[in-house]
Amino acid sequence: MKSSQFRDLACVIFLMTIPGSALTLPWDKDMQDQPSLKPQDSVFSVNRSSVPVGGKDRFSPPENVIELVLARLEAGRTLINPVPKSPESLGRGRQMYQLHCQVCHGEQGRGDGPVGLKFVPQPMELNLDYVQLQPDGQLFYTISHGSIAMPFYRNAMSQQDRWHLVNYITEVFGES
Ligand code: HEC
Fold first, then answer.
1. Closest atom, ligand 1, to C-alpha of 72
2. DSSP conformation letters of 134-153
3. What residue spans define the domains of the chain?
4. Higher-confidence residue: 50 or 17?
5. pLDDT by residue (tens digit) across 120-158?
6. Hey, whose CA ends up nearest to atom 32 of ligand 1?
7. Ligand 1: which of 105, 157, 161 to mutate, judged by most atoms within 8 Å of the beta carbon?
8. Architecture of domain 65-172
9. Cα–Cα distance between 66 and 57 in angstroms, integer?
10. Given ligand 1 and candidates 124, 132, 157, which is best to mutate, with the most ligand atoms within 8 Å of its CB?
11. Phi/psi at 169 (nearest 5 deg)?
12. Which pLDDT value is given to residue 42?
């Protein structure tokens, strides 16, 4: 056997002694790199060009507070609530409220939920005329796009459920 052949053979034998797992170095990143849900990742994988089944939301998110206020008023003028205030709608609205809003706005809508108490500014008191006299479309807009400190819910709730929630807020709150 020539010396170069001997060297190749020695090289192959040496490689065979390395366990497969050694080739996946660095090991400490394997867990991190696997396809998995990372903290704060969205659980929705939405095709960028797709639109919601019920049609596209009319407004794109505002860039600043002035735009937010104007877009909100515009929504109040143009969006019509398509969902009648039936007992079923109020029941569903109540579920949505308890699931998404109560932590901040409190059981009675007074802005004193356990998370809300830690907020500056404090969550809006939903019984105030300021809220109760808003047109349904304006409240729908706030729920869909959030407010200044408040998160948005257009991805967390269907359009239908957001209208149920509007029905619930205007029917159940504002009495006292
Ligand atoms: C994480 C806390 C938090 C949650 C959850 C939350 N809000 Fe709010 N919300 C706030 C805060 C803080 C404000 C006042 C400051 C602002 O406008 O962002 C507010 C303001 C509002 C306003 C008044 C907006 C205006 O016209 O000025 C409405 C209406 C409202 N929230 C409804 C809701 C509804 C309905 C839900 C459930 C989908 C909800 N909020 C969930 C914190 C929250």
1. 26
2. S-HHHHHHHHHH--SSSPP-
3. 65-172
4. 17
5. 899 999 999 999 999 999 999 999 999 988 999 998 999
6. 143
7. 105
8. Orthogonal Bundle (1.10)
9. 20
10. 124
11. -60, -40
12. 62
